[in-house]
Design brief:
By secondary structure, this protein is an alpha+beta fold. It is 43% helix and 15% strand. It is built from 16 helices and 18 strands. Strands 3, 4, 5, 6, 7, 11, 12, 13, 14, 15 and 16 form an 11-stranded mixed sheet that branches.
């Protein structure tokens, strides 16, 4: 360890009893620039001595940084007392850097943030966020720096949530206690501080929310559903589904599939150009919540059966009757693409992992006439189907995860015409049964989402919870009077 390094923590303890938090923070900054061994001529040291010295310097610098941070946190405690903070290390530095000035001067921005945060808490996704809101409410009457720091603490939580919920929606909004508050990035914090400096906090806070009109209408009614006994059952469904709506942009451009509604809606410039029934994944093979963009249309697509479907569904049927392959147009292919006679396989020796691929030929496959590709880590896409009678069923959670579109021909017409295809060309390619693809010329985002309750033009809409996602969210530890106060 370097000789003569100041032992800050002991000195800080005595100083904290005598001076203000600002003075402590300033003193911590000054001690951060203690001299190092820069005066030593490193070139005269052996490699071993140099490595040892550099390690000592690095260790000492780390210790100094830790002691400086400890000083800053002690300074914050000196100013506001002991508080149950989520992000005390960040807050200590942030407020010291700003001389403990109040950061929440814009009351409109504060009100907007607290409404959004209360709506998030009402969803039940975070017990810790609910506690932060409760702490805020208790400190509000006295106001001052303590309330300001608690506001910022909660805001950092909300900022992280807002910036990441679109990517984490499947995990955070469809399972219990999956959301864990974390600090936003330094860059995001600096963007907010810049908004504070420029008196533009309201614009920044509004930018963290969504322009989805159904979300706005839904959170507007939540307070009316809170009584002394808590949130009503319908209110609980609306609260969690409001958060699911916030990851969906307003219905202006793109293909939107609300999974439990079994419906596809295609918007262009705010106009609904196509609406179609769809078939989604069964409960055992759920269609995931996801965002992507259409990349191309495949006419006469072949179908390569997914591995899970092969092992769990097709192989057991082939084991009972190898003739099942021919009856359903399946080709069994080895690793080189050679066809394998199903009667030549010893099915009794086939284990859990089938060593061959199973494929249906173009024009006669389970994908029907069209496949609409989009990048997906789960290999999910939209497609046609030859089994069109299933669209008349009320419960259409029947697929292995991909989305079957009843009006796939109309969807293909729109996209292929933009790619320069005439109707005659489309019909000619279909008749040839040859696989042909066309790149999509327009921007077509695809949103597969799962919302079972929302408010639209004053009316509450409720759908069956086909995957039982609504039941896994718990909100038993929420102070509903405080939530209602801020909603």
């Amino acid at each position: 360890m370097l000789k003569g390094t100041v032992k800050l923590s002991a000195l800080a303890l005595s100083l904290s009893m005598m001076v203000s938090g600002c003075a402590l923070a300033d003193w911590a900054k000054d001690t951060a620039s203690l001299p190092s061994l820069s005066t030593i001529d490193m070139s005269k040291l052996s490699p071993e001595e140099r490595a040892k010295l550099e390690a000592e310097i690095k260790e000492d610098q780390a210790r100094l940084a830790a002691e400086k941070q400890s000083m800053l946190e002690m300074s914050l405690t000196h100013e506001i007392g002991e508080q149950n903070l989520q992000f005390k290390p960040i807050l200590a530095k942030l407020y010291a850097d700003n001389k403990y000035a109040l950061l929440w001067q814009d009351k409109s921005a504060e009100k907007q943030f607290l409404r959004e945060y209360a709506a998030m808490v009402a969803s039940g996704i975070s017990k810790r966020s609910a506690k932060s809101l409760e702490n805020l409410s208790q400190a509000e009457q006295n106001g001052g720096l303590t309330y300001d720091v608690l506001l910022t603490d909660a805001f950092l939580d909300y900022m992280y949530y807002s910036k990441n919920v679109s990517q984490q929606a499947q995990r955070w909004l469809y399972s219990s206690n999956s959301y864990k508050p974390q600090a936003p990035s330094d860059e995001q914090i600096q963007q907010w501080l810049s908004a504070v400096k420029n008196n533009d906090v309201l614009t920044y806070v509004e930018g963290l929310s969504t322009d989805n009109l159904h979300y706005r209408q839904t959170i507007q009614v939540l307070s009316s559903m809170i009584s002394d006994s808590g949130l009503t059952p319908t209110g609980k469904k609306l609260a969690i589904n409001a958060q699911r709506l916030r990851v969906i942009p307003d219905f202006h451009n793109g293909i939107f599939v609300n999974i439990p509604s079994y419906q596809l809606q295609y918007y262009r410039d705010g106009r609904l150009v196509l609406e179609s029934r769809v078939i989604v994944g069964k409960d055992q093979r759920r269609t995931p919540v996801m965002y992507s963009k259409l990349s191309n249309v495949v006419v006469n697509p072949p179908w390569n059966a997914p591995t899970r479907l092969v092992n769990e569904d097709i192989v057991p049927k082939l084991r009972r009757d190898p003739g099942y392959a021919a009856a359903h147009g399946y080709s069994i292919l080895d690793s080189k693409g050679n066809s394998v006679d199903p009667y030549s396989i010893d099915w009794n020796k086939v284990g859990k992992n089938f060593p061959y691929r199973i494929r249906q030929a173009p024009g006669d496959s389970a994908l029907g006439n069209y496949k609409f590709n989009m990048p997906s880590s789960d290999a999910i896409y939209l497609h046609d189907t030859p089994n069109r009678g299933l669209f008349s069923r009320k419960d259409r959670a029947l697929s292995s995860g991909c989305v079957r579109v009843e009006k796939s021909s109309q969807l293909a017409d729109i996209l292929l015409k933009e790619a320069g295809w005439s109707d005659n060309r489309k019909q000619s390619v279909l008749a040839s049964k040859k696989t042909t693809s066309a790149n999509i010329r327009s921007d077509n985002p695809v949103f597969l989402y799962y919302v079972t309750a929302w408010v639209e033009n004053g009316q509450t809409k409720v759908l069956p919870d086909i995957y039982k996602y609504d039941n896994v969210i718990g909100n038993s530890e929420i102070n509903w009077n405080i939530v209602k106060k801020y909603l």
